[in-house]
Amino acid sequence: MKKGTLFTIVIIAAVLSLGTTAGGMGIVLVSPDEPRTVSSGGTIAVPCEEVSQFSGAVDAVKVSGDSESAVYSLEGYGIVRVDCASAAYDVLLTDWQPSPEGADDEVQPHRAAIFDPEGFRADPDSFENRLYVLATLIRREGPDSRSLPSQSSSWIQIAAADWLRLDHPQWVADGEQLFTGLVEVCVDDDGTWFLTAHQQIENLTADGFSEPHITLEDGAFVLQKPTIHEIPVGTLLYAALRQTRSSGMRLVVHGDAVETVHYQSYLGSFQELVLLAARPGSADIEILYSRYGDPIGERTVSYSVY
After folding, report:
1. Residue 298 · residue 288 · CB < 8 Å
2. Cα 192 to the chain's mean position, in Å?
3. For residues 127 and 134, what is the distance between their CA atoms, to the nearest angstrom?
4. Confidence check: pLDDT of 37 > 80
5. What is the pTM of this model?
């Protein structure tokens, strides 16, 4: 039997042993190439017989396994290192408190999905080693041009006189640019706070509204179908919906493969959403645009989650 087939059978058996995953998050296959995001209480599949060590703020329980792979249930938060005999994997473990639209309950800083600059300035210790989604403008030059950051660092301005360093080893910032990603709040030995970017996140609303693309094929006008993006379970998505007196935006998710894990509203005129590819399947995300209350168009982003 091939290794890939055997691994698939193990995962299916693990799902059956856990019960149906339709109401929760699917099993996340860890990858050596990039950290995978997992909700606390979720499960990961590790391609090795025995894990020698789990490092980080995590409780790991082995659910199933065989001679080549194992499935673990994780509880905790932050960066988790999974060490095997032949490889090591990083898991981005979130314990965000779901906040559906219309909820009035206050979410504690360490249980929110979206980084709160004001909350951080008031009590940075409550943010330490936590993971947050951050959408902001970054720049290479920070508050002091005499001490430029390295090629793998930039600065974000969180208040008129306050800045934070943003480390991002995978890419290089060139001038000002928009950034949306999953960051960890860190502190140096000397007490200097900074953010570490672990992965960039697709911003569903970054491009704004544009007219649908229509092509002429065989003498007929054809509306271009949305491209289907293939993403693994655990992939994060972000959307920012703005409301003004003359225009508005609304987001609708079709299918159960992608779900909203955090919603935050600012005075009703600006909403931020964090979405998660929770289980294998398909999902169409519609962004609806209106002007003076009347619909003017929509844009659809389609995903196939594996």
Report:
1. yes
2. 26
3. 13
4. yes
5. 0.84
